[in-house]
């Protein structure tokens, strides 16, 4: 297999969202909402269990009235906001405006940290002449996150679900990424953390490599294994 393209998931693969407690504390401080510390911890735990933090833990259960929008949340910006603010509203917070503020916070570059080996791996792939795309189920433009952390110059293309109206594991999103890179799916590897969504690339003939969705400090070098999967990587664009 001659690898000419590498497709990467965003959340849980190249970047990790801040903790639910950090997310909530930032919004409370900005809104000058005074909440006892023990209540902040309780609210954060409840929001996490509800699956309200995009890029965070999945919900323990999806309320029946949100099942429809939750299933298609990554197909459009409005759907994404409605799904996640809806999940957050399952947790009673002190002020109603906090729900939209929480959603807005998660889109800020400062809310995300790249995995420690992401710059090294993306840079080495570029050095080898492998073209790189980010393929993400998401409802907003993540390019500013890559720019803020200095990784945008290492990415050739972005295939974002809300821009295409389809979400992984639909093969059309992976095909869009391959088309943008100008590589055949059989010459590409998909790297992600979701066995169901990211493994959908295999239907096109892409090789699939999965990593664990862990906090940044608990996963310092998992992406480096990708380089070992590419003994036949192209040496020219």
Question: Could you provide a short overview of the structure?
Answer:
The protein has 237 residues and is α/β, with parallel strands linked by helices.
Could you characterize the architecture of this molecule?
This protein starts with a strand and ends in a 9-residue tail after the last helix. α4 (77-88) packs across α5 (98-106). The strands form 2 sheets. Strands 5-4-1-6-7 form a 5-stranded parallel β-sheet, sandwiched between helices. A two-stranded antiparallel ribbon has the order 2-3. The protein contains 10 helices and 7 strands. α7 links the parallel β4 (131-136) and β5 (157-160). It has helices spanning 20-30, 37-50, 67-71, 77-88, 98-106, 118-127, 143-148, 161-164, 171-181, 225-228; strands spanning 5-8, 15-17, 112-114, 131-136, 157-160, 188-192, 207-210. With 237 residues, the protein is of the alpha/beta class. It folds into 2 domains: 5-16 and 113-228, HAD superfamily/HAD-like (Rossmann fold, 3-Layer(aba) Sandwich); 17-110, no CATH class. Keywords: Hydrolase. InterPro entries: HAD-like_sf, HAD-SF_hydro_IA, HAD_sf. Pfam families: Hydrolase (PF00702). This is HAD-superfamily hydrolase, subfamily IA, variant 1.
Q: Could you list some keywords that capture this structure?
A:
237 residues, alpha/beta, Rossmann fold, five-stranded parallel β-sheet, two-stranded antiparallel sheet, 10 helices, 12% strand, globular, disordered C terminus
């Amino acid at each position: 297999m001659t690898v000419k393209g590498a497709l990467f998931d965003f959340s849980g693969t190249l970047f990790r969202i801040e903790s639910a407690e950090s997310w909530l504390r930032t919004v409370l401080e900005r809104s000058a909402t005074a909440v006892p510390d023990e209540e902040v911890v309780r609210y954060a735990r409840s929001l996490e269990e509800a699956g309200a933090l995009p890029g965070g833990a999945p919900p323990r259960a999806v309320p029946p009235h949100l099942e429809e929008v939750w299933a298609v949340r990554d197909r459009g910006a409005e759907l994404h906001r409605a799904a996640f603010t809806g999940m957050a509203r399952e947790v009673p917070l002190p002020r109603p405006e906090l729900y939209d503020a929480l959603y807005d916070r998660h889109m800020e570059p400062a809310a995300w940290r790249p995995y420690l080996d992401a710059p090294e791996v993306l840079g080495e792939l570029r050095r080898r002449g492998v073209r790189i795309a980010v393929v993400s189920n998401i409802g907003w433009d993540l390019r500013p996150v890559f720019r803020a952390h200095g990784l945008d110059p290492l990415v050739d293309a972005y295939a974002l679900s809300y821009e295409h109206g389809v979400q992984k594991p639909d093969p059309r999103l992976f095909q869009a990424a391959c088309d943008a890179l100008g590589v055949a799916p059989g010459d590409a590897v998909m790297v992600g953390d979701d066995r169901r969504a990211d493994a959908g690339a295999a239907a096109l003939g892409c090789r699939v490599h999965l990593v664990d969705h862990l906090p940044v400090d608990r996963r310092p070098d998992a992406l480096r294994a990708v380089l070992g999967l590419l003994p036949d990587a192209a040496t020219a664009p």
